[in-house]
Design goal:
35% strand; 401 residues; mainly beta; five-stranded mixed β-sheet
């Protein structure tokens, strides 16, 4: 099992504890519709409200309905019971753009209204992240379904949602220690399990939700309960159905390499142990992504450290095939006075994109500009810079939540 087996054998590094995971947690079922009486009038679908429209394609699990359909009340019959409500997605105003200054361990939260001006406004929330290491290098931000913040770097760090509401200091709540000594990214599947990708074998691992809930401020090694050996060191992204989009190893001619973008179906990611099953989709041309953002309409935007971003549609990424040649739906280059080298990308519910790059700034690309197809250039609608008091800032990890 690669690094996982080594951890079990050595009992973990000094000062850490080793915990084996259990099985994968399950998902919730759907509510059913009640029966209609003969002369009944329809009571209305409970799950087709505004929350559903902002749902699954934006990271929520509302999908088709926010709840099951309510029953149709008959003239003398009883109304059917409404189904269990699903998790709603991010509302059009109920979110922030979160920006991490890795040099100062500061987390800035910008409300949508603060991202309209050419240079952006001061953040609504300014949080000092206490207890983080001072040598963060390759940071990535991810929020779980409860609103807790996870920062991926060499180790993975959690800050609780309750500490991220207002300006102040947030204290570290948990540490997931790395396996293999390499930097990693994290993402959560719809069941709440945490997945981590790293540049060692196994590159992609799953830790179940119950084990993650037991983490503390003591650096803890968890033994993965599932590993995918055909994946590669890459950003990872789930859709609402539990399909995983990431980098995969594939062969093109005489060359076998890791830099193929692809998809694993949810059915390939269940159970325990290790799988070498190939991804059901690997795309050409090869693309070495540094980050992936999934938009509200299910498209994928990839960044690779240059000024050009690549987008594939939801329909394109729903296909199957090995080394499937796909012409990107869009490839757009950012036209800015200082040529950006994009290392992180995030999408908001309105279709705007945000990119962080090697300078201490975040650029906003408007939804109208990036809605084009083909090859084009985009002038940033906003340039968000560090506050004057935040000298030597190093913006890197960003997220919309």
């Amino acid at each position: 099992m690669g690094c996982g087996a080594a951890v079990q054998g050595c009992g973990g590094d000094s000062g850490t504890k080793v915990i084996a995971n259990g099985g994968r947690s399950g998902g919730a079922g759907k509510g059913g519709a009640g029966e209609a009486g003969e002369a009944g009038a329809q009571a209305g679908a409970a799950g087709e409200g505004a929350a559903a429209s902002a749902g699954a394609d934006n990271g929520g699990a509302s999908g088709e309905n926010a709840g099951g359909a309510s029953g149709e009340a008959g003239s003398s019959g009883e109304a059917g019971a409404a189904g269990e409500a699903g998790a709603a997605g991010i509302g059009t105003a109920d979110w922030h753009l979160w920006v991490l200054d890795r040099a100062k361990s500061h987390l800035y939260g910008y409300a949508p209204s603060q991202l309209q001006a050419t240079n952006g406004d001061a953040p609504a929330i300014d949080i000092t992240l206490a207890d983080l290491p001072t040598n963060l290098v390759n940071t990535h931000l991810e929020f779980d379904a409860q609103g807790n913040l996870w920062i991926g770097d060499l180790d993975t760090y959690r800050f609780n949602a309750a500490d991220l509401k207002v300006t102040g200091t947030a204290h570290l709540a948990a540490i997931l220690k790395n396996i293999g000594g390499n930097y990693g990214r994290v993402a959560f599947d719809p069941a709440g399990n945490l997945w981590r990708s790293i540049y060692t074998s196994p590159a992609l691992t799953r830790f179940n939700a119950a084990a993650i809930a037991g983490l503390s401020t003591t650096a803890t090694i968890l033994v993965p309960d599932f590993s995918v050996t055909s994946a590669s060191d890459y950003p990872i992204e789930f859709d609402e159905a539990g399909n995983l989009y990431t980098g995969v190893y594939a062969t093109q001619g005489a060359t076998t390499g890791p830099n193929f973008f692809g998809r694993y179906n949810a059915a390939q990611l269940v159970g325990n142990g290790t799988t070498a099953d190939p991804a059901v989709l690997s795309t050409l041309p090869r693309y070495d992504a540094l980050d992936i953002a999934r938009t509200t309409n299910g498209a994928f935007v990839l960044a690779n450290g240059s000024a050009t971003l690549t987008r594939y549609t939801k329909a394109q990424m729903a296909q199957s095939g090995v080394n499937l040649a796909l012409t990107p739906d869009a490839q757009f280059t950012i036209d800015a006075p200082v040529v950006p080298a994009v290392i992180r990308v995030a999408a908001d519910p309105d279709g705007n994109l945000y990119v962080s790059e090697t300078a201490a700034r975040v650029l906003k690309l408007s939804s109208a500009d990036v809605a084009q197809t083909g090859t084009f250039t985009v002038v940033p609608a906003m340039t968000l810079r560090a506050q004057a008091s935040d000298t030597n800032a190093q913006f890197q990890g960003i997220a919309v939540h």
